[in-house]
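Review form for a predicted model. The reviewer records the input and the model, then writes brief findings.
Reviewer: anonymous (R2)
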Amino acid sequence: MNRTTGISLIALCLLLAGTLLSCSKENGGPGEGVGIRIENLSAYTFNEVLVETGGGGEQFYFDIPAGGITDYKNFEYTYRYAYIRTVIGQDTLTLQPIDYVGEQQFADGRFTFRIDIVGETSPLYMVFEFRED
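Model under review:
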């Protein structure tokens, strides 16, 4: 092997290693399980959102401004709905599933849980929409 080939091979190995190291499991991309992010459709700031996907894991999201969208967080799996607890100031709103019987389980992909809050002067209840990204 000549010197130029050796240098090219080393450069290729470094490029490949850099590419692999730059991949992040936080993105929840294909083949990495489920990635869920929160989109705040309301006029309120969400101080805290807890998502529990019915056995597929739980994650906290913090300080989501009105109109904001979080980064994806990893879950083992999800359904089209989940247990969601949203804290807005002194108010706590909860979406509580009864069960997941007959529901499709998603074990791979990216999803957005879109949350809106009804109530102009104070949060009254939560409206939820599931979106496959």
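Findings: DSSP finds one helix and eight strands in the chain.
Further findings: The CA atoms of residues 115 and 128 lie 5 Å apart.
Recommendation: see findings above.
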